[in-house]
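Take one record.
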Amino acid sequence: MTTTLDTRPPDGGADAQRHHAAAVTANSGSSFFWGMRILPKARREAMYAIYAFCREVDDIADGPEPTAVRLAGLDAWRAEIDRVFEGGPHTLAGRALVEPVRAFGLERADFLAVIDGVAMDAREEMRAPPAAVLRRYCARVAGAVGLLSIRAFGDASPRARELALALGEALQLTNILRDLKEDAARGRLYLPRELLEKHGIDTTDPAAVLAHPGLVQVCEEVAEIARLKFAQAEAALAGCDRRALRPAVIMMTIYRRILEKLVKRGWQRLDEPIEVGSREKIWIALRHGIL
């Protein structure tokens, strides 16, 4: 995907914008799609729009262009978010956000936080980051998405915000553990530097870290942190509107299963893929709400 925005207003009206956002979400293959499907139409379309925005900025950060070009593309999206809130966005994804922002009070700061998070990838900062930097990254690329999502779901209470931030970190840590080899191929290593040093790994070269015998202990500790964050999210859920937050519960259930499958597989067979199949996702969605 190109890293610059077409500044011409897109053809088509509201139907084209909604179709674009829904198509991006459906074609992604993301587990998030399963949580979105149970929402009422307006809230579901809001989530499709949020996801399409996230997908587009993430694709910029992951693109093959030079760093300066990718950062310019992200700056263009910062300007597009301003236009979403002030009138006249130029892209289908931006225009799809206008009504959700108005209807559900989505906050500009959360969109900008997502962009700031993916910019950390674009600047190639994420190679064995200090734990504090990793937490900031998780809060931006996942926690901020959670804060947008709970507004679209219908519960933005303080306890729901706690859930969003804890669950966002848990999901991101699970993704990090699942995607170790894929990220290493891109020159990225999201495991915290302190844990590498604790277990005798004195390099930040992704391939060397994945081949090091200390990797097992590092991943076990990261998995334990993810479990703690899932538990914090579940504790916060007790003070929330559980019905409104059913999509978050579905995602928490799916990702907990992914985490436990990763732990069962271990950290020496990284070529062995881990996933929760469609039938299992359907069962989870049916358990927590009607598809």
About this structure: The chain has two domains: 1-106, 125-291.
